[in-house]
Amino acid sequence: MRKEEFYREALPDSRGPLEGFRVLEATNVAAGPLAGTLLADLGAESVKCEMPGKGDLLRQVTHCQVEGPSELDRSAYYLSINRNKKCITLNLKHPEGQELFRRLARHVDVVIENFKPGTMEGWGLGYQEIRKVKPDIIYTSVSGYGQYGPYSHRPGYDHIGQAMGGLMSITGYPDGPPTKTGHAVADNLGGWQGAFGTLAALVHRMKTGRGQHVDVNLVDAILYTTTFGIMGAANAGWHWERCGNRHPLASPSNTFPCRDGWVIMAVASDSHWAKLCRLMGREALIADPRTASPALRAANWQFVEGEVAAWTQGNTVAEVVDRFEEAGLVASPILSFEEIVQDPHFREREMVAEVEHPTAGPLKLFGVASKYSLTPARVHAPAPLLGQHNEEVYGGWLELTSEEMGRLREKGVI
Amino acid sequence: MKKEEFYREARSDMTGPLQGVRVLEATTSQAGPIAGTVLADLGANVIKIDLPEMGDIMRHLPPFIEGAPKLNSSCYHLSINRNKKNISLAINRPAGQEVFRKLAAKMDVIVQNFKPGTMDKWGLGYEAIKKIKPDIVYVSVSGFGQFGPNHQKPGYDPVGQAIGGLMNVNGYADGPPTRTGNAMADNITGWQGAIGALAALHHRQMTGEGQHVDVCLVDSILYTSDYGVMAASNAGFNWKRMGSGNPAGGPCDVYRCKDGYVFILVLIDSHHKRFWPLIGRPELYQDPRMQTPVARAQNLPFINQVVGEWTQDKTVEEVVRQLEEAQLVVTPIFDFPQIVRNEHLREREMVTEVEYPDVGKLTIYGVAAKFSRTPCKVRTHAPAIGQHNEEVFGELLDLGAEELAQLQQGKII
């Protein structure tokens, strides 16, 4: 299908399918903010509360920064994940700040928070308090281990989700340590769970008028990606061991070295194996007693993959991928982010998006993963400056005057 | 909070927040079925279609449950297709396509993950279904999407991880790019499909309009990559593989103990102040190599060596206990047998059980999002091929026993 065909009925001024939906975020770092990001990316209006003067912790991350005059608006991490949002400053530890938060909550459909369980309650901002001022609120809590359960009091970080949720134990090589993913997958998926927990609760609210408390966390989210891990261990006596990039049940299925990098391939059926043998000029291996069936190839994977590696080593990645494609086989290069930003497919799908930032200039960042034929969703605004939307939100929603805002600013409340 | 407190207003008469939403799945393998699983887990009424006799490819993959019926013993299938109904239907044949269109007219959502163009060729694409059900939410799950230069390429989980940027930053600096142990791309693309369906249902509720939702493996993986795109475009930052470490500093890595590994993270200043004396190196708290995040990032090999020397002659349990007592961030690394035994994951019903005829109880992963008013759970085991033929064809299409027998004979169902 061509892109124009997919979008032929698209509403030209749409922000996305969630347009008109309002979110208030009391979030920090990654997992909580990412729940808000997904909703904002799909068109919701998300207002993020940050600590006056300091802002979100990710604003202070210095190892990867863009150019710009303001130290708090240069972190690529913050700028990437908080696009499409509004930002107000609000000190939630201050009683006046808490009162403002409760007033703001009356104007929204959803509250998202990711403080340690019990913190928002301590501030008078927990689900039970907020529903007193907004009875049908959807209140989404994102945490490390959840709102209840023996570990719920513990702090949660990305790698804890990966370590406790089973992912690290199966990622990496048999002779190496358990391995964390390169980017913060648990934070991301904890956030995604928060977003669709919110949307599912919204469906229920539309039918019944009732809001509710939604509880998601990093460990549960990671475990929710492990498919048969639990049943394998509990019912099938199957011990899932780390096996690098190798497929435990099929061969050749692995990363292979080429002259200029790595290629990944998956060849399972006999007909595909025969095609690969012809490509490699090793027709004898088609009927070889070591490699003649999927089960034999899996059992003799070291031999099989040694033969394949001997062939790939003499080729470039592009040569292997092209020849596989001509033969109707599956192989793929392994792209770096430098290559991703040049890739025409990602450009056309707007997965490499560009947005104009007031101090940093044009910034490239990841686009919106789900595509909607009628209500396209896209990166329409850069991550906000600290307190950029104070006037709009405090003035517009709460009708505070500039004197009142000045007073609150002096007291460190906003 | 106690569990009872969280659920004090829970309704026991509902399957979840999506009760009443009807979903028809023309799916196979993982990414498509998992989109349906998320919706089924949240309470939707999901009907999955399998081809007669053969069924979904996952039914054929090990590991298998001993004593379970053939085609219904794969842990893959039994884990991911719970909470669904199953009908057999040959949607690759005209008579089956006719039945599919009749069913589609009764649905809110369709989820399909055939190669782009296949459903159109069968007369079951978005445009065809929209003619008989104008407000349908039609979710297509694929490797590279419904459009774009590579949309015709087949999609497999490792391809999604390789093209979406994840593999290149995963693994060790001196080793190859590494994929995650689970099929991460398949799983999270299914999640994107579910999110897409829900967001489109919201739009439909507001306006009455349905639409086509397009999600794919490579987009979904890229959507988890945090600052990768901006780092390469705007910050001149070359993101390299560094195992379990963190380019922002340390200690933040996996450390070897006598009997396994732990993960330790020391990030903020007050934690550094407690950590270095605790491991018997108080002088390092004032050491210039530790004073700033930049310095700590530059001296990671030294930091990791010192921490590794401290952990190597202790057990995992000792390291975890000592650091937890000091309120520092540490975690053991669970394998699945440990997960199955874990009290926290049991209480949260992330490790849960479902009745299964002939075998007894199957242990299975639960539902990740918890809802205080409309709790979700694993209600039913993954069905056999065609287990719900009579119920679905009878109730939705008014087909009688004779008509069903006829369709069965023709291998349409």
**Beta-strand share of residues of chain B:** 5-15%
Q: How many helix segments of chain B?
A: 19
Largest sheet of chain B: 6 strands, parallel
CATH topology of the largest domain in chain A: Rossmann fold
The top-level CATH class of the largest domain in chain A is Alpha Beta
Short description:
The complex is a heterodimer of chains A (414) and B (413). With 414 residues, chain A is α/β, with parallel strands linked by helices.
Give an account of the 3D structure.
Chain A contains 19 helices and twelve strands. In chain A, helix 2 (31-41) crosses helix 9 (185-208). Chain A has two domains: 3-225 and 347-410, Rossmann fold (3-Layer(aba) Sandwich), CATH 3.40.50; 253-335, formyl-coa transferase, domain 3 (2-Layer Sandwich), CATH 3.30.1540.10. Chain A is α/β, with parallel strands linked by helices and 414 residues long. In chain A, the strands form three sheets. In chain A, strands 3-2-1-4-5-6 form a six-stranded parallel β-sheet, sandwiched between helices. A three-stranded antiparallel β-sheet of chain A has the order 7-8-9, covered by helices on one side. The longest helix of chain A has 24 residues, at 185-208. The two termini of chain A are 50 Å apart. With 413 residues, chain B is of the alpha/beta class. In chain B, the strands form three sheets. Chain B has a six-stranded parallel β-sheet with strand order 3-2-1-4-5-6. Chain B has a three-stranded antiparallel β-sheet with strand order 7-8-9, covered by helices on one side. Strand 6 of chain A pairs antiparallel with strand 12 of chain B, so a sheet runs across the interface.
Considering the chains and any ligands shown, give keywords for the structure.
heterodimer, A: 414 residues, alpha/beta, Rossmann fold, formyl-coa transferase, domain 3, 2 domains, six-stranded parallel β-sheet, three-stranded antiparallel β-sheet, 19 helices, elongated, B: 413 residues
